[in-house]
Design goal:
With 131 residues, this protein is mainly α.
């Protein structure tokens, strides 16, 4: 049933997941799912919607989490995903500038335990102040 770029109707999703279409409508009313709509206002579920629905069903069926708890868990997952992407960007930045940071710290030789500025502007100000 899953193919990239495909959309599925509410009846197809309900049948595939063995749930009533009203359950999907409830999840939408509660803000847990946000299917797109066709020009005729038919709900269209994407693969991403199906993945999210699998998480919802796992939480409710397997773990007994109520819908308020599901909402909290999904919101926390989204925030964690954002934080993970920010961390990865920061780590990539550090990797890309590792040599520059190493050269900077070798050149400045701070006193034991002193904080070292990591921007070029701060380094230039520091060098200017010591001249």
């Amino acid at each position: 049933m899953k193919r990239k770029g495909r959309t599925y109707t509410i009846s197809a999703v309900a049948t595939h997941c063995d749930i009533h279409p009203q359950t999907l409508r409830l999840y939408e009313r509660e803000g847990l799912l946000k299917p797109s709509r066709s020009e005729g206002n038919t709900r269209l579920y994407t693969d991403a919607d199906l993945e999210r629905l699998e998480v919802i069903l796992s939480l409710t069926r397997d773990l007994g989490v109520n819908l308020a708890g599901v909402e909290i868990i999904l919101n926390m997952r989204e925030k964690m995903d954002v934080m993970q992407r920010e961390f990865e960007r920061f780590f990539a930045y550090l990797q890309a500038h590792a040599e520059e940071f190493a050269n900077f710290t070798d050149a400045t030789r701070p006193e034991e335990g002193a904080l070292v500025p990591i921007t070029r502007a701060a380094a230039l100000r520091r060098r200017g102040a010591s001249s």
